[in-house]
Amino acid sequence: MKIDILTLFPEMFKGVFEESIIKRAINNGKVEINLINFRDYTTDPHNKVDDTPYGGGAGMVLTCQPIFDCVKSIRTEKSKVILLTPDGIQYKQRMAYDLAEEEHLILICGHYEGFDERIRSLCDMEISIGDYVLTGGEIPSMVLVDSIVRLIPGVINERSHIEDSFKDNYLLDYPSYTKPRVYEGMEVPEILLSGDHKKIDEYRYQESLKRTRERRPDLLDKK
Ligand code: ADE
Q1: Would you say 67 and 110 are in contact if contact means Cβ atoms under 8 Å apart?
Q2: Is 147 close to ligand 1, i.e. is its CB under 6 Å away?
Q3: Which of 5, 79, 88, 142 could form a disulfide with 75 if both were Cys (CB 3.0 to 4.6 A apart)?
Q4: Global pTM?
């Protein structure tokens, strides 16, 4: 899979993509991630990428030209162009599974006060990561990349995401424990030490159900 990220702040991605699972996925050729500064595409003599809004108002608005030219030069028939914006559709695990099947994602990070409305016409999809406003689409892009890359076959142990919270079954994860058996008086549930895998699976399922009922009953309503 190839992911092109259009941003004015490519440096922001460094720590995130240069550590742990994403780094390994890049090094193993499971994903290619390109950070593209769309300022490089501006035809403005002063390298501007934004301007004042028509009709007046506060702040600056990203202009069409650099983003249009950049997207047009990298998109192919197989590309899916996604705009990160708080007014997009809310991101869900189900969408991560769908996007992990794509060959080429182009993520556009908005910034400053906004972007020219016509930029939306370039996009196949608009995504919000939640009902809050961030300073730009960079952190949302990182969220998408992280959640998608871990689902690419061979990136992490399959079992880890087969058991994920939020897959199709809308159940939260069951509780996990590791050594020691007793820590500050808190004991590991006896059943996990029994070696009876059928019972353990049933226990875990019941715990998932209980946790979902207590914390996210809305997820069970969807089922
Ligand atoms: N840009 C600013 N806030 C955002 C959000 N919540 N989701 C996606 N993009 C954004």
Answers
A1: no
A2: no
A3: 79
A4: 0.91
50 classed as catalytic: no
Q: Would you state the structure tokens that stand for residue 89, as one six-digit string? A: 């559709």
Q: Residue 213 is part of a domain; what is its CATH number?
A: 1.10.1270.20
> Is 131 near ligand 1, meaning CB less than 6 Å away?
no
CA dihedral 160, 163, 165, 167 (to 10 degrees): 110
Nearest CA to ligand 1 atom 9: 85
118 a catalytic residue: no
Distance CA 114, CA 60 (A): 7
CATH number where 98 lies? 3.40.1280.10
pLDDT (tens digit per residue) in 96-135 = 999 999 999 999 998 767 999 999 999 999 999 999 999 9
Q: Which domain holds residue 26?
A: 2-158
- The model's pLDDT over 32-84, given as tens digits with 9 standing for 90+, comes to 999 999 999 999 999 999 999 999 999 999 999 999 999 999 999 999 999 99
